[in-house]
Amino acid sequence: MNEAVVLTPERILEATEDVLRRYGLTKATVVDVARALDVSHGSVYRHFPSKASLRDAVAKRWLDRANEPLCKIAAGSGPAPERLEKWLRTAFSIKQKKVCDDPEMFATYLALAQGAREVVEAYKDKQVDLIAKILSDGVAQGVFEMDDVKATARAVFDATVRYHHPAHAEEWAKPECPSRIDALIALLLRGVRVCKH
Q1: Same domain for 17 and 75?
Q2: Fewer CB within 10 Å, N side or C side of the chain?
């Protein structure tokens, strides 16, 4: 064992992802992660006090990476309706791409996320906050109208769950999926636009 190796949480998470890819969630252990890093399992536990905390960190890392482009869209400028549509389409395509490109790893991450309830709830709250940012910008631009931005953001998130929640992944390959997404986005945008009298 090479205990002289500089061990960081990021290196451990990278190794954990490799181990999960190689062995799967049910067979991967902290000892496997330590072996991949050529350190003792105690070294891994110094950074992550339990297997559950390590799994939570891997789930958070995965979700954070998926959220990066969405954060950029929400923080951007430009007309809010276009940004909201881009945000929604990007959110859907990120999940759909992960399912199509690497279905086995997606299934592993899905199982991880199901065990990381607090991490997933924080991720959902972050997504609602990002939608709320765009909606707030739309109100400020005079193109959106709503009584409660946060409640509307939550409603948008909930209304689109079929296209971003992994439980619906088998539906995403259906030929009618793109037209359903178009119709839903058009409806949502009409619902938040300022009414012209």
Answers
A1: no
A2: C
| pLDDT given for residue 105 in this prediction | 73
> Of 2-11, 49-58, 94-103, 185-194, which has the strongest mean pLDDT?
185-194
Residue 160, domain extent: 59-192
The residue behind tokens 């909606």 is 135
Distance from the Cα of residue 63 to its chain's centroid: 4
Residue 28 shares a structural domain with residue 124: no
Residue-wise burial string across 79-109, b where 16 or more C-beta atoms lie within 10 A, e elsewhere? ebbebbbbbbbebbbbbbebbeeeeebbebb
Task: Evaluate if residue 115 carries a pLDDT over 90.
Answer: no
Instruction: Give SS3 for 144.
Output: strand
Amino acid at the residue 81: P
108 with 102: CB under 8 angstroms? no
Q: Same domain, yes or no, for 102 and 71?
A: yes
SS3 76: coil
Cα(89)–Cα(69) distance, rounded to whole angstroms? 11
